[in-house]
Amino acid sequence: MTWRWTTKHWRATLTAALLTLALIVTGCVKNPVSGAEEFSLMSEDQELAKGAELYPKYTQQFNGLPADDPGLQAYVRRVGGWLAKNSHRPELPWEFNVVNSSQINAYAIPGGKVSITRGLITRMNSEDELAFVLGHEIGHVAARHSAAQYTRGVLVTAAVLGVAIAVSDSDYRELGVMAANVGGVLLLASYSRDQEREADALGMEYMARAGYNPKAAVDVLNLFQSLQKREPSAVETLLASHPLSAERIENAGDDLKIKLGWATARAYNTRDFNQALARQKARKPAYAAMDKADDDYQAKRYDRAAQNYRQASAMLPQEGLFKARLARVELDLRQFGPALEHARQGATLRPDLYETNHVLGAAYLVNNQFGPALAATKNAETFLANNDNRFLIGLCYEKLGERDKAKAIYQAVRQLDPKGQAGDYAAKRLRALR
């Protein structure tokens, strides 16, 4: 078949080219670390706005904060805040937290928002090791690495959209959804090796300025290397966004010898670290049981999953996440009464989580309590908006006889998730409501 360019195709291609050119000529920002002028599609004001928007969402996606441990959060805020004051961008509204995930990971969001997982911090042995990980993430923000990734990704997406529009005879709704969603995905995209090297160097510089021993940086990198060999799945997410190489470890060692030897005689701070981590380290068996249950659930071994969630809950009764996940298993087993009981307990213990409220909404729904189901799913949406929960809200409205509201939500879900499960369910409900 011979391709023929039409006026539409030429117009679309020209529009994409002009858009790309306009983007290129409008964005120049000084790099806070190097002082050089760099092309960027993200200004500092946009950094701050994006960080404020995304930080709570990512915190929810990583299961919120660990239950009943405000002392740990205060400790990490103190350490991170002191490092940030010694960085190239002390004026940012920095925030630091520990998120309740067993993954071994840490991440930074533009605008000075940094998180470390429970799974990583409980593997550490000193405040100095913590300082390197936080300092490394501060380095990514200071050098505007996420803004650079965002800029590169938007330019590539603009070019791809231009080609896609030019060769497509269909409508552009799916392409529009792709363009609208690109920003949030790119902000946590994988860093380059050069960016990782720079973040390592900056993290070591900041921790040395702040009074820590930068030798801990090599300890942390060696820990990651060891885990990569012994427990590759544990560090898969971390290494996907933070590539590890022997070169990184060698470069860190060189920096110690050449630039930071003056700080390597300092004693590691283990006392304050151990005090701050005592509660979480004591809880490791409970979360290990949860992790086993999660694996069982993914493999559809529902009875074993329920048993492990119960074991986790017995060891740590105040963690409502265990109750919510037990309720989720019971929903799959069609044990609707016990599911509602455990979902209520989970949401009572942890009203601050998307997951506990979402599961509660589902449990109310299957028990034909549509008003409470709507309230719970709407509450879940205040923490994190996604198509699975939107579909449940639509279903609640349908069951309550509010067909127009239900149809509007189903239409939105179908457009936002045209090829996903939620979009498929929404399309089926729309056909049923004709």
UniProtKB/TrEMBL annotation:
Alphabetical list of InterPro entries matching this protein: Mito/Outer_Membr_Metalloprot, Peptidase_M48, TPR-like_helical_dom_sf, TPR_rpt
Top-rank taxon, per record = Bacteria
Positions of the Peptidase M48 domain: 73-252
Give me the TPR repeat coordinates as residue ranges.
387-420
Naming one, the record's GO cellular component terms include:
membrane
- GO-annotated molecular function: metal ion binding; metalloendopeptidase activity
Keywords in UniProt for this one?
Hydrolase, Metal-binding, Metalloprotease, Protease, TPR repeat, Zinc
> Cofactor note from UniProt?
Binds 1 zinc ion per subunit.
Entry-linked CDD domains: M48C_bepA_like (cd07333)
The protein's required cofactors? Zn(2+)
Q: What are the BP-aspect GO terms?
A: proteolysis involved in protein catabolic process
Q: Which family does it belong to?
A: Belongs to the peptidase M48 family.
Q: What is this protein called?
A: Peptidase M48 Ste24p
Protein source organism: Desulfarculus baarsii (strain ATCC 33931 / DSM 2075 / LMG 7858 / VKM B-1802 / 2st14)
